[in-house]
Amino acid sequence: MVLSSAEAFAAGLYICGFKADARKVMASFKWGDSFWQLNGEQLDVYANCKGADEVIAAQNAALQRLRDERQVRADFAQVSAGDIYGGASLPPSGSEDEGESETGEEEERSQFWCCPRYGQGT
Fold this sequence. Notes:
Layout: H1 5-15, H2 19-27, H3 32-47, H4 52-81, H5 102-110, E1 113-115, E2 119-121
Antiparallel strand pairs: 1-2
């Protein structure tokens, strides 16, 4: 993410305690409210830091959260694109066991199977 000069200036003002001035800067832009919605929580975290070490720790924590969120989205996309059952054990379909008699197929349908992700199914 890249900040515009106005966003960087407003963020600096906000972090240094000039919150009203920061809001005035961003009020000049139609997307100013969106800036606060997207960044306000993290700016509060930075504003509450007592020194450079705390700012760096807050930054690293924020970056790790973003990495974690990106990984969750990537995992979801992988499941959505392929293995929609999340690796769950599914009951066999009738076409997989063409050599079985009808009696064997009936027994398979009546057995319970276990889905590790969502519990038990039938």
